[in-house]
C-alpha cells in the first residue's frame, strides 16, 4: 500500500507517519510538505522511518504536487493553514491554502485517482451551534470554516472514481514534537506548566469539541485500512467549556492562577457529536493522559 500525506510533516502528520511506518500493509509513505512552520523536529525526533520519503513542495504548486500524486493507493490531505481557526486572522491564507490548494490537488486526483482520499476537514464548517451531527447543514461563520467547506465540496466530486472520506475533526490536543499551540488545551496545559497562570478568553462558558491526538490517529486508520462508506464523519470524543478545563488544571495545580480576557464577553459555542463514529471518552481521563504527556516532555526550570 502506497500512501501520500500532504502536510505530513505537521502536528497530526508526525504522529500518523510514526504509526503507519510500522504497519506491515504499508509499503511506502510519501510526506509532501513545504515546512512553512520551519519545525524540523519531524526529522530529528521519534523512531527511525524505514518506509517514508520526504518531498518538499507547496500544495499550490501543481508541478511539484504532480510528481508525488501519481501511483498512490491512498491520499491523505492534511496540508492546511490552521493558525487561530476560530478567529478572523489570516483570512487570505485560509482561502489560498485550504481552498485553492485543495483545488490544485483535486485536479490532479481526477487525473490520477487513488483508491481512497481522506481529508482532514474541521468542525468549524458547522459554525457556532449546539448538538451538531453529520446531518446538520454546514454554516461556517469564519474564513477558516468556509475554506474547509469549499475544499470538501471539491473532493466530494471524486467519489465517482475513489472512496472519499471527509473527516470533520474536533479540536485536536495532546503532546508530540510538532506541538500546535493554536489548540486551546495544548495552550492551557503549557501555560499551566511553565507560567503557573492560564489565560481564558471571554467568560469561559464557550464549548468546543475535542479529540485526543492518539485517538485521532487510531481512528484515522479505520479509514485507511477499513472499508467504510464514502461520506462525512465527525471525529470527536467529548465537548467541554473552558471553565471545565480550567477546573481540571486547578485540581492538579493548587497554586495555578487564572485570568479572563474580556471576561464580560459571551463567546459562541460549538458542540459536536457523531452519529457514525462511536469514540466517546471520559473528558477527565483524556485530559489526565494529555497532561501526563506534557509533564513528561516539558522541561520546567
UniProtKB/TrEMBL annotation:
SUPFAM superfamilies linked to this entry: NAD(P)-binding Rossmann-fold domains (SSF51735)
Enzyme superclass (EC): lyase
Domain of life of the organism encoding this protein: Bacteria
EC number(s) given by UniProt: 4.2.1.46
The entry's keywords: Lyase
Span of domain NAD-dependent epimerase/dehydratase: 3-213
InterPro entries named in the record: Epimerase_deHydtase, NAD(P)-bd_dom_sf
Gene Ontology terms, MF aspect: dTDP-glucose 4,6-dehydratase activity
Family: Belongs to the NAD(P)-dependent epimerase/dehydratase family.
Name of the protein in question: dTDP-glucose 4,6-dehydratase 2
Organismal lineage: Bacteria, Pseudomonadati, Bacteroidota, Flavobacteriia, Flavobacteriales
Name of the gene this protein is made from: rffG
Amino acid at each position: 500500500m502506497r500512501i501520500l500525506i500532504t502536510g505530513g510533516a505537521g502536528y497530526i502528520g508526525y504522529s500518523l507517519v510514526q504509526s503507519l511506518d510500522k504497519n506491515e500493509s504499508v509499503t511506502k509513505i510519501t510526506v509532501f510538505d513545504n515546512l512553512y512552520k520551519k519545525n524540523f523536529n519531524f526529522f530529528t525526533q521519534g523512531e527511525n522511518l524505514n518506509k517514508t520519503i520526504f518531498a518538499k513542495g507547496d500544495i499550490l504548486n501543481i508541478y511539484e504536487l504532480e510528481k508525488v500524486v501519481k501511483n498512490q493507493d491512498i491520499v491523505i490531505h492534511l496540508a492546511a493553514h490552521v493558525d487561530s481557526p476560530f478567529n478572523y486572522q489570516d483570512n487570505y491564507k485560509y482561502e489560498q491554502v485550504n481552498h485553492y490548494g485543495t483545488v490544485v490537488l483535486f485536479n490532479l486526483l481526477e487525473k490520477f485517482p487513488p483508491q481512497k482520499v481522506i481529508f482532514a476537514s474541521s468542525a468549524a464548517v458547522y459554525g457556532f451551534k449546539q448538538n451538531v451531527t453529520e446531518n446538520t447543514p454546514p454554516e461556517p461563520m469564519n474564513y477558516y470554516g468556509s475554506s474547509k467547506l469549499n475544499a470538501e465540496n471539491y473532493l466530494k466530486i471524486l467519489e465517482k472514481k475513489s472512496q472519499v472520506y471527509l473527516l470533520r475533526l474536533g479540536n485536536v490536543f495532546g503532546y508530540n514534537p510538532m506541538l500546535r499551540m493554536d489548540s486551546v488545551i495544548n495552550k492551557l496545559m503549557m501555560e499551566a506548566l511553565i507560567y503557573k497562570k492560564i489565560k481564558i478568553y471571554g467568560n469561559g462558558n464557550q464549548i468546543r469539541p475535542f479529540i485526543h491526538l492518539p485517538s485521532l490517529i487510531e481512528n484515522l486508520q479505520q479509514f485507511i485500512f477499513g472499508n467504510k462508506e464514502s461520506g462525512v464523519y465527525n471525529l470527536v470524543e467529548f465537548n467541554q467549556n473552558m471553565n471545565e478545563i480550567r477546573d481540571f488544571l486547578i485540581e492538579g495545580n493548587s497554586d495555578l492562577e487564572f485570568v479572563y480576557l474580556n471576561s464580560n464577553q459571551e463567546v459562541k459555542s460549538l458542540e459536536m457529536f457523531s452519529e457514525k463514529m462511536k469514540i466517546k471518552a471520559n473528558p477527565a481521563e483524556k485530559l489526565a493522559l494529555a497532561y501526563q504527556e506534557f509533564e513528561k516532555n516539558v522541561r520546567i526550570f
